[in-house]
Prior knowledge:
Blueprint: H1 3-14, H2 17-43, H3 47-61, H4 65-86, H5 99-122, H6 127-135, H7 140-170, H8 182-191, H9 196-231
Helix pairs in contact: 1-8, 1-9, 2-3, 2-5, 3-5, 4-5, 5-7, 6-7, 7-9, 8-9
Amino acid sequence: MDYKFLVDTFFVALSGVPTALIITIISLLLALPLGFMLALTRINKIPVLQRFAQVYVSFIRGTPVIVQIFIVYSSVPLLLSSLFEKYHIEKNVYDINPIWYAFIVFSINTTALMIEIFRSAISTVSKGQLEAAYSVGLTNAQAFRRIIIPQVLVTALPNICTATVNLIKATSLGYAMSLQEITLKAKVAANVGYNYVEAYIDIFLVYLILCSLVEYIFKRYEKRLSKYKTAHA
Length: 233
């Protein structure tokens, strides 16, 4: 065991944390509103959109993330290349930063999870509360913003936390797109002296620390939101 390499590479792996966090944050910012809206289409049984959401969730949950990465990473450049050629755009699609493909893959994947999380959470809120909101003159948007969404967030937060932690761990598959994240940086450092055991220990430690911090932040936020549960109990 090369302890010097273990220590040095820990900080190399740590330098990949910002990339993992950026992918996680952007993916969540896209997935949360999309997941909520598509969950509503399933609850309200909107014909075409409901069916689309069902098929979408089944497809995403039934296929491995790594396969989704390979599909997006191989098909999107071909599609862009055809479009650029058609419209005479002078740009090499292979110069595009792979982080953009990561945004696409992980947003698509996380949205499917959020649909099911929000669908379950929304069903726990009594319909009588929405009717009461209408009776005092609130609009649909106001009723959701002031009454429904805060309660849904309290119910959904533990599952959103789990999805976020899983998303952070899934960013380790970004190496398949040559993305300079935690795993790839540590593995590249290990290539010189074949110190793969030390590199994987560093990767393990970095993800453990990062995911533990995220769980702690979510627990703190859950306590702040719990007042809505008490208020509407």
